[in-house]
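Action item from last week, closing it out:
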Amino acid sequence: MPEWMFLTNHALVLSFLAKHPRITARELSTAIGITERTVRRFIADLHAAGYISKKREGRGVKYRINPDLSLRHDTQYEVAIGDFLEALGWKRRRRAQRGLHGKASS
């Protein structure tokens, strides 16, 4: 384990959720190297702050990022979380535009 890192564990969890929206807390804990309980606490923090939303899909959960919120530090409020995540390799999903009858246009 490195002596220090550029990203907090909250940022690592958010980054993994952005790239892998159906990842489990157990898979996340293994990937990051922290306990599953801690991962669940970070997910709860991110959800409570509005950075992610959760949707039940079968036995699992699908996470969705709110890319419009800003970073939390006073010196970084002008940086949107979506821009930060894109810098880490996240591919922002573009929504299809809807036509007059609710059908996606191409």
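Closing note: The longest strand covers residues 52-57.
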